[in-house]
Design brief:
The complex is a heterodimer of chains A (162) and B (88). With 162 residues, chain A is α+β, with helices and mostly antiparallel strands. Chain A is built from five helices and five strands; from the N terminus they run H-E-H-H-E-E-E-H-E-H. The longest helix of chain A has 16 residues. The relative contact order of chain A is 0.14. The chains are: A alpha+beta (162), B mainly alpha (88). Chains A and B meet through helix 5 of A and helix 2 of B.
């Protein structure tokens, strides 16, 4: 990662909110396609709350003021084991961002550093199997698959109340 | 597949990078960091192009995306997927 690029990654602020909501909606579409939640007000409330919460790591790449990259990580605790970990919720880079190559990785590294600095020893994240771009970013930043989500589509006749 | 798997991979890479020299790059050239420096979006587009043009499965068949390490590993993945099933 270039020093210049790292220097342009800073904590997200309320003034970034419009750009962050657009990123969240783009991520929802990439992850859930037709079932994506695209309610701007809902995303704005969630992101604005995170900006105020010290357990949430929210960073943007904004070399010229406007956010062209976004990463969001939450600090969580396993209810059964008590183990604390970072949950990588969002990674996005705007199509118009300069120096795109490696930018998403730089954002993931910044989020990982946020977790490490707060004592986390593990970071996890979810990605749709068809989202190869994000899977490449995970692979390039040292993540490996751990769980598989299994889904069986039910025919209408199998659904109660159908 | 009329052209070899490796030729197909090299041709698609040359198109993605707009660099005909990729056709002659060593097979152990990394596709991403330290090699061709494909970014994540370009890599995803390459995967989609290979899957749709040659019917190979990468996203679902290679959970660790290990086939995307080098030109050679990707060509090998495409070659295996294209080979007739002789296991039974």
């Amino acid at each position: 990662m270039s020093d210049r690029r790292a220097a342009a990654i800073r904590p997200a602020r309320l003034e970034d909110l419009d750009a962050l909501v657009a990123f969240e909606i783009a991520i929802a579409r990439a992850s859930f396609s037709e079932r994506a939640v695209v309610d701007r007000a809902l995303h704005a409330r969630r992101v604005a709350a995170a900006l105020e919460d010290p357990r949430e790591g929210t960073f943007v790449h904004a070399p010229a003021g406007e956010a062209h990259g976004w990463v969001w990580i939450s600090l969580r605790e396993n209810a059964l084991t008590g183990e604390r970990y970072g949950y990588l919720r969002s990674v996005a880079v705007a199509p118009e961002a300069a120096e795109r190559t490696g930018l998403a990785q730089a954002l993931v590294e910044r989020a990982t550093a946020f977790a490490t600095e707060r004592g986390m020893r593990e970071v996890v994240g979810k990605v749709h199997v068809e989202n190869v771009a994000m899977r490449v970013i995970f692979r390039e930043t040292g993540f490996a698959p751990q769980h598989l989500t299994m889904r069986r589509r039910l025919a209408a006749a199998e659904c109660a109340g159908a | 597949m009329s052209e070899s798997a490796e030729a197909a991979v090299r041709r698609l890479l040359a198109e993605a990078l707009d660099d005909p020299a990729v056709v002659h790059a060593p097979a152990d050239t990394p596709l991403l960091a330290g090699g061709l420096e494909l970014d994540s979006l370009a890599t995803a587009e390459l995967v989609v192009a290979l899957e749709s043009a040659y019917g190979v499965e990468i996203a679902l068949a290679d959970l660790e995306l290990a086939s995307l390490r080098t030109i050679g590993t990707l060509a090998e993945h495409v070659r295996r997927a294209d080979a007739p099933d002789t296991s039974r």
